[in-house]
Amino acid sequence: MALLFSGFVAFLGLLIVIFYLLKLCSITLFNIPGFDIFFNFIIIVIPYIIFFSGYYYLHKKITLSKSKTATVIARAFLIIGSLFCVCTMILSSLKLFGVQKSFLLTYEDNSQYAWIIQIVMLFFTALIIASGDTKEKNWMDKKVISDDL
Q1: Residues 84, 51: contact at Cβ < 8 Å?
Q2: pLDDT value at 116 more than 70
Q3: DSSP states of 37-89 as a string?
Q4: Nearest CA to 61 among 69, 70, 49?
Q5: 3 state DSSP class of 94
């Protein structure tokens, strides 16, 4: 019982030390001139990196599709989604760097829709790729075939 309790106390102590070190690092880093802009830029770019990796993954999966129609439509969705992702990343970066234009204010007010559109484009691209695959056999048909063997 003492080992269990001391392990729990050690885990809490480790969490306290980690949080203290992270707080110390953040205070130190934010005292460096320009680091807050760099940090904000990294925070803005990370979601776009995730979306681009999703588009890259789907790009690799398009070649596995059996249907030519599904391949063409999926490539069109992929190109449109990638271009939209690049455009929204540029608009977000311009807003971060302080460009004062009316279309950027409109974009800032409606930026949540850009994320929704990105997710929908990835979903529909994956759906179109999946629709081009051959139909998977029912589990009952698989059982009949394995029983015959």
Answers
A1: no
A2: yes
A3: HHHHHHHHHHHHHHHHHHHHHHHHHHTT-S-HHHHHHHHHHHHHHHHHHHHHH
A4: 70
A5: helix
Q: Cα angle vertex 54, ends 50, 60, to 5°?
A: 145
In degrees to the nearest 10, what's the CA dihedral of 108, 42, 59, 75?
A: 20
Spatial separation of the C-alpha atoms in residues 93 and 98, rounded to whole Å? 9
pLDDT tens, position by position, 74-115:
999 999 999 999 999 999 999 988 888 888 888 888 888 999
Please check whether residue 126 is in contact with residue 64, taking contact to mean a CB–CB distance below 8 angstroms.
no
Two structure tokens written together for 49: 């990196």
pTM recorded for the entire structure: 0.69
Q: List the structure tokens of 55.
A: 């588009």
Q: Which residues contact 129 (CB under 8 A, 6 or more apart)?
A: 58, 61, 62, 64, 65, 70, 74
